[in-house]
Design goal:
Blueprint: H1 29-47, H2 51-61, H3 68-76, H4 86-98, H5 129-139, H6 142-157, H7 162-170, H8 179-187, H9 193-207, H10 212-220, H11 229-237, H12 243-257, H13 262-270, H14 279-288
C-alpha cells in the first residue's frame, strides 16, 4: 500500500480506500460451478461402465438376457404344484425363468396298422384209413381187386419192372388178367422202380457172373427184365461190385463147359457178343484160371 500522507490537525481528510485487487480465476463463481459439474460427470462415469463393455461382458458369459415381458410370461405360465411349498414353487419358477427357452421337439404322428383279419379254418373231416380202403375197394371190380393182390404178391417175391410186371399179369402164360386191369393194378401200387431194379440186379449176381455192361443189358432188354436203361444203369452203378472177380468167375464157368486157350478165353470174356468185360478185366479173369501161365 502507498505510504500514509501526513494529516494536518483540524483538517478532516476523506477516508482512504484501498484500490480494488483482481481475484484469481479459480476463485470465481463460474469456475467453481464448472468444477462441480465436471466432478459429478467423472463420478457418474466411474460408477456405471459404458454400454459396449456391458454388452461384451454379456457375450463373453453366453447368458441371454430376456426382456421383462418374456420373463414374466415364462414365470406366470408355470402351474403351481398342489403339494409343493410356496418357497419351493418360487425357486422352481425362478430357475425356469432364468433358463433359455428351447424349441419343442417335433412329434411324430402315431402310425396306424390295418386291422388284421383272423381266418378260422374248420378242421377237415378225416376218415380212418380202413374206411377209405373199404370205400375204394367197393368201387373196384373183382378183376381189378384180384389183379392188385396178384401184383403185390409178385413184388413181394422178386424184383420186377413196370412193363415186366404188367406182362406177367396179362400174359397168356402168366395170370391172364385183362390188360387194362393189369395196368390199373400195377399203377395203383406206387412202386419205386429204381429199388426194384436194384433187387433184380442183386438176384442176377447171386445166380451168375456178369460184367457191368452185360448186367445192364440183362436188366433193360425186352427179353430180360424190361427196366428202362436209366433204371438199369442206376441199379448196377449203385452196387459195389468187383468186376475183375466177376470176370474170373465167368472164365471158370466157361472152362467147365468147354476148352479155351488163354487168348480165346480173353476174347470170349471181352467180346461185345460175349460177356462184355473190359480187356483188363477179361485178362485178369483168364489169368486167374491158370491157363495163361
Amino acid at each position: 500500500m502507498p505510504p500514509a500522507q501526513p494529516v494536518a490537525h483540524g483538517v478532516v481528510q476523506p477516508p482512504v480506500t484501498a484500490p480494488n485487487e483482481r481475484k484469481p480465476w479459480w476463485r470465481r463463481w463460474w469456475a467453481i460451478a464448472l468444477g462441480v459439474v465436471l466432478l459429478v460427470a467423472v463420478i457418474a462415469a466411474i460408477a456405471s461402465p459404458p454400454e459396449e463393455e456391458a454388452g461384451d461382458s454379456a457375450d463373453a458369459t453366453g447368458d441371454t438376457i430376456e426382456p421383462a415381458d418374456t420373463v414374466g410370461t415364462s414365470v406366470s405360465s408355470i402351474p403351481a404344484s398342489s403339494t409343493g411349498s410356496p418357497a419351493t414353487t418360487a425357486a422352481a419358477e425362478t430357475t425356469q425363468a432364468s433358463q433359455p427357452s428351447t424349441a419343442p421337439e417335433p412329434t411324430t404322428a402315431p402310425t396306424t396298422q390295418p386291422p388284421t383279419t383272423t381266418v378260422v379254418v374248420a378242421p377237415l373231416a378225416t376218415e380212418p384209413v380202413e374206411t377209405v380202403a373199404t370205400t375204394l375197394q367197393e368201387t373196384l371190380t373183382p378183376s381189378q381187386q384180384n389183379a392188385i393182390r396178384s401184383a403185390q404178391s409178385y413184388l413181394d417175391f422178386s424184383g420186377f419192372s413196370r412193363d415186366g410186371l404188367i406182362n406177367q399179369l396179362s400174359s397168356e402164360y402168366g395170370e391172364q388178367f385183362p390188360l387194362d386191369d393189369a395196368v390199373f393194378a400195377v399203377d395203383s401200387l406206387g412202386v419205386d422202380w429204381n429199388q426194384e431194379a436194384i433187387e433184380s440186379a442183386e438176384s442176377y449176381l447171386d445166380f451168375s457172373a456178369f460184367s457191368r455192361l452185360g448186367l445192364i443189358d440183362q436188366l433193360s432188354s425186352e427179353f430180360g427184365e424190361q427196366f428202362t436203361p436209366e433204371q438199369a444203369t442206376f441199379a448196377v452203378d449203385s452196387l459195389i461190385v468187383d468186376w475183375g472177380q466177376q470176370a474170373a468167375l465167368s472164365a471158370e464157368s466157361y472152362l467147365e463147359f468147354s476148352s479155351f486157350s488163354c487168348q480165346g478165353l480173353i476174347d470170349q470174356l471181352s467180346s461185345e457178343f460175349g460177356e462184355q468185360f473190359t480187356l483188363e478185366q477179361a485178362t485178369y479173369g483168364a489169368s486167374q484160371t491158370g491157363i495163361c501161365g
